[in-house]
Specification:
GO terms for molecular function: nucleic acid binding. This is Phosphoesterase RecJ domain-containing protein. It holds the Pfam family DHHA1. The structure is a single chain. The protein is an alpha/beta fold. It has two domains: 190 residues, inorganic pyrophosphatase (n-terminal core) (Alpha-Beta Complex); 118 residues, Roll (Diaminopimelate Epimerase, Chain A, domain 1). The strands form two sheets. A six-stranded parallel β-sheet has the order 3-2-1-4-5-6. Strands 7-8-9-10-12-11 form a six-stranded mixed β-sheet. A hairpin with a 2-residue loop joins β9 and β10. α2 runs parallel beside α4 and α5 packs antiparallel against α6. The mean pLDDT is 97. Bound molecules: guanosine-5'-monophosphate and manganese (II) ion (2 copies). One manganese (II) ion binds next to α2.
């Protein structure tokens, strides 16, 4: 059921024990929104825990509260009055779904949200879920602290590609400015999050050799099979390098993380890439989407390229 921001605030005020979760394979928005909301609810006197069913990259230790994020154990039962899922639909929270048997409140900005939670606040115009959480904190009438600001600024900065993507709106900048006034430190965040191990930077050279150009240059992508990934780390932000190629509208990466399981990222400068991701049970935004394909690299590549070319054809 869709609810308003005021109703979202009321739903949070009405309960005491709250578990916050976000999507597996968590990004800056998932982690920043979870921790930002945690700090705000703690300020309201709530008992709050954050559980994410994945490892949290160490670079995010720059965010206050990082060490408090738990990962549910097999068969664990976590008591709560409310489960709050941020930056995600309930189908991508992994084991947290079984571990927390409580009513669900979902706060999200993905237009592909599946609307399966008991209550859903969805704002597809928000650049990041963290932008919504800032507005929610205002609605809750909690003073914004530096801890909240560091977390929420990170969510917005990463989902907008450091304020470069088309989702960057006047409101995005206004919220970011407010977060700076509350003590967010952009240089501390960017220095921590842009750091990479030498081996990962060097693996870029390997991966970039594998760029494939399709559809008269409108589509470009990189496929890394499991053997490639055994030898070379998957470079973070690889898709950004493909996206900037002149003339490319759709960029993709396909990484065979485990034999027979591929993770796909899609970016576009115009075409709606959710049309491709949804065909494989994924989702996302018009210009940034993703999915998993349970096939080996060669088979998944064939299916993906077929789907991309169909969408490109239909648009031209
Ligand atoms: P990324 O390529 O950075 O992993 O994801 C791009 C966008 O697509 C993000 O907003 C992310 O949440 C969404 N996305 C990526 N993979 C999936 C998926 O498997 N399912 C859904 N529903 N969304 C996804
Ligand atoms: Mn996310
Ligand atoms: Mn997001």
């Amino acid at each position: 059921m869709h609810i308003s921001l005021t109703e979202t605030a009321a739903a949070l005020k009405a309960v005491q024990r709250i578990v916050i979760t976000a999507h597996v394979n968590p990004d800056g928005d998932a982690i920043g929104s979870s921790l930002g909301l945690m700090h705000a609810l703690k300020a309201l006197g709530k008992e709050v825990q954050v559980f994410i069913d994945d490892d949290i990259p160490a670079a995010f230790s720059v965010l206050p509260g990082y060490e408090l994020i738990g990962k549910p154990a097999e068969g664990q039962s976590i008591p709560a009055d409310l489960l709050v899922a941020v930056d995600v639909s309930l189908d991508r929270i992994g084991k947290v779904a079984e571990a927390v048997k409580a009513p669900t409140l979902n706060i999200d900005h993905h237009i592909t949200n599946d609307d399966q939670a008991d209550k859903l606040y969805l704002d597809g115009t928000a650049a990041a879920t963290a932008e919504i959480i800032y507005q929610l904190i205002e609605e809750l009438d909690v003073p914004c602290t530096q801890d909240m600001a560091m977390c929420l600024y990170t969510g917005i900065a990463l989902d907008t590609g450091w304020f470069r993507f088309s989702n960057t709106k006047p409101r995005t900048m206004q919220v970011a400015a407010a977060l700076l006034s509350c003590g967010a430190q952009p240089h501390v965040i960017s220095e921590a999050l842009e750091q990479r191990p030498l081996s990962e930077v060097q693996s870029l050279a390997f991966a970039l050799q594998k760029i494939e150009i399709l559809a008269d240059g409108k589509v470009a992508g990189i496929c890394l099979d499991n053997a490639d990934l055994q030898e070379h780390e998957a470079p973070e932000g690889l898709i950004g390098m493909v996206r900037v190629i002149e003339g490319v509208d759709i960029a993709f990466t396909l990484k065979e993380k485990e034999p027979g399981l591929c993770r796909v990222s899609l970016r576009s400068k115009g075409i709606d890439v959710t049309k491709i991701a949804l065909q494989f049970g994924g989702g996302g935004h018009v210009r940034a989407a993703g999915c998993s394909i349970e096939k080996n690299c060669a088979e998944a590549r064939n299916d993906l390229i077929k789907a991309i070319l169909q969408v490109v054809e239909a648009e031209s």
